Amino acid sequence: MTAQPKGRLQSAGAVVPLAVLATFLWGTAFPCVKLGYRLFAIESGGTASQMLFAGTRFLLAGALTLAFGAAAGRRAPLPARRNYGGVLLLGLVQTTAQYVFFYVGLANTTGSRGSIIDASAAFIGVILAHFLCRGDRMTRRKALGCAAGFAGVVVLNLGGGLDGAFAFTGEGFMLLAATSSALGAVVSARVAPGNDPMAVTGWQLLAGGGVLFLIGALGGGRIRPTGGAAWLLLFYLAALSAVAFTIWTLLLKYHPVARVSIFNSLIPVFGTLCSGLFLGEEIWNVRNLAALLLVCAGICIVNGAPGPASSVKA
């Protein structure tokens, strides 16, 4: 009974719908995190409270993933013993490091700008895969796609951030978050084979989230929910992480890093649209649209060969 779904996941046609779903969920996280700061009374300079908020989210996400995996398999999902170290490393890179930079950076820039800068993870992933993943080599087409994507990030940052200037703890931290995400994809591609994807996802979220929670708690962070909406938002953030990271781990188990990572470029499309919808940000300006077009062009170029990937639209 398990052979059939595995075959579907290994097919090239599985990449597009699953990657789009995961990136849509991650795109909604940008406005939701910023709304969470309001609903939990977290100030932009409250780094410890931001880490506590992030840690609570990912601990809950890890618990949800493992609980669902246990219900589906009727036993607690565990990675192979030889991969315990790899899962811990994945948690430190893909959850702890990425979201330290993500939560602080997003507090110091807009949701739309943050989501577009975060898209550089796709192109950083393609570059890292060339050096770290056997058989995932850089080609002329991939290089052109990466150049287009990075050009979009450059165009976006020709303008100012929240205070009219590029901020290292804002836009700069979002770029570091993207780098951590890309490196996490490489680590995941090495850890996932031979393991239950839910086990890898759940335990790395618990490990990484636990470190974030400790950083926040030891730093004196506090989260003060202002009502029931705050808890609903926290649960949604945890659930989207559980679903999106599980999908991503599954895709990286069966497909090359570069082919999967490039779909990170869809995150700014969803993130920008959702930030405009839920935060009321001004998204329809020439700079934002030019940046979005360039990063989406990166998807089309990198996946420009005939096949399912060429059907992706912004």
UniProtKB/TrEMBL annotation:
The chain crosses the membrane at residues 12-31, 51-72, 84-104, 116-133, 145-167, 205-223, 229-250, 262-280, 286-305. InterPro entries: AA-Vitamin_Transporters, EamA_dom, EmrE-like. The keyword Membrane applies. It is found in: Cell membrane. It is a multi-pass membrane protein. Its main location: membrane. Keywords: Cell membrane, Membrane, Transmembrane, Transmembrane helix. Residues 17-157, 170-303 form the EamA domain. GO terms for cellular component: plasma membrane. It holds the Pfam family EamA. Belongs to the EamA transporter family. This is DMT family transporter. It comes from Anaerotruncus massiliensis.
